[in-house]
Every structure is written in structure tokens, then in C-alpha cells.
Design the sequence.
């Protein structure tokens, strides 16, 4: 497989992995993932990202609990306001819907990070204008690199969206005031092989010159 096809394959087959085998991630894999993040583009080459690698089980569990509470509040809000019902109005399997609702409103959907062998907490300089965008580019690089190495990763925002949760993470990881916690990336060997979820066709999302005028 040539380089172009390899990149296309990695992008096209990558999935978010939330279940991991109980095995260590080799240090050379972690370094390649971090290097991929370091190589991301940034406005004026500011490189505002910094990465905190967390392997300690106790620390992972504490981060998981913060993420669980964050997701629980968010999705409980969606439930009581009716947003969740609108999201799943096409799901007719009531038992499956009940399981999904419980997974979301309890925050269990994000608690899985406790069982990822490695967490990479991505933080960024507050005084750089493009920090959220720059760090997102770094994270995407890391996700693709992880998949290309036959490992799995998930981009987790729970625990970083609410300032109350972010402050807890900053205290836990001793993050200086001048940084903002952007996201958590979980990393490990996937428990199972999964296929990518269906994406909308380009015909529905690409326009010519102005919105609404189909490109294709």
C-alpha cells in the first residue's frame, strides 16, 4: 500500500474506541502518537498545545469520575428538556432506547476512560487566539496515527466543557493558570473490531459558491 492509499485508508476506517484490552501500550506507540500531535498545524506556528500522559490507575479513575459527572449533567439536561427524545425519535426499540438513556443520563457513556491504559490530556495556552482550533488539529492527528498503528482512541470532551469540571482536572493534574484543559484522548488496544458509522454523502454537504446550490 503506497503512502497516499495508507493515509486514505487510515482516515476512512478510523473509529472511536471506548473498550480496550487489558494490556499496556508500548512506549514507542505513545511517542509516535504524541509526535503526530506535535506536528499539527497552528496559527502563526504558535504550537499552544501541551500533553499530559496519564497511566496511573488511580488518576485515570479520578478523571473518569469527573467525566462521568460532566456527561451526566449534560445528558440529564437533554432528557428533561426533551432534546433527547427528539434525538432518538427514530429508535423504535424501547428496551434499547432505555439502555441508551440510562447510559447517557448517568454519565456512564464517558466513564470508560478509567479502563483505557493511557489517557492523554490535551491542554492549550489561553493567550493564543487559535488554541481551540490548533489543539483540535493536534488531536485529530493523534487519532489517525493511533489507528494507523492498530490501536484505538477516543476524543473525550466530558470533564472539560463545564468550567467546574475543568477546574477539578486542573487541580488534579496541577495545570498552570495560563493553560486551558481542551480534551482527553483515551488510548489502548481495541477489544473488538468495529466498522465506521455511516457518514452523510458529499452530495448533501457540499455547495457551490453559496449555501444551497449543490456542488455535485
Sequence:
Amino acid at each position: 500500500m503506497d503512502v497516499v492509499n495508507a493515509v486514505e485508508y487510515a482516515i476512512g476506517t478510523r473509529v472511536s474506541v471506548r473498550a480496550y484490552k487489558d494490556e499496556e501500550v508500548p512506549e514507542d506507540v505513545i511517542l509516535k502518537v504524541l509526535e503526530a500531535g506535535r506536528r499539527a498545524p497552528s496559527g502563526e506556528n504558535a504550537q499552544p498545545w501541551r500533553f499530559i500522559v496519564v497511566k496511573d490507575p488511580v488518576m485515570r479513575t479520578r478523571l473518569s469520575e469527573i467525566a462521568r459527572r460532566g456527561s451526566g449533567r449534560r445528558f440529564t439536561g437533554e432528557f428533561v428538556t426533551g432534546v433527547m427524545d427528539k434525538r432518538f425519535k427514530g429508535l423504535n426499540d424501547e428496551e434499547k432506547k432505555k439502555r441508551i438513556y440510562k447510559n447517557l443520563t448517568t454519565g456512564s457513556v464517558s466513564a470508560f476512560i478509567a479502563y483505557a491504559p493511557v489517557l492523554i490530556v490535551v491542554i492549550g495556552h489561553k493567550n493564543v487566539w487559535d488554541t481551540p482550533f490548533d489543539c483540535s488539529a493536534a488531536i485529530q492527528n493523534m487519532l489517525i496515527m493511533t489507528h494507523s498503528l492498530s490501536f484505538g482512541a477516543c476524543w473525550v470532551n466530558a470533564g472539560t466543557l463545564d468550567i467546574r469540571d475543568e477546574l477539578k482536572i486542573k487541580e488534579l493534574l496541577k495545570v498552570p493558570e495560563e493553560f486551558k484543559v481542551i480534551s482527553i484522548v483515551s488510548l489502548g488496544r481495541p477489544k473488538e473490531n468495529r466498522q465506521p458509522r455511516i457518514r452523510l454523502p458529499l452530495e448533501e454537504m457540499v455547495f457551490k459558491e453559496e449555501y444551497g446550490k449543490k456542488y455535485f
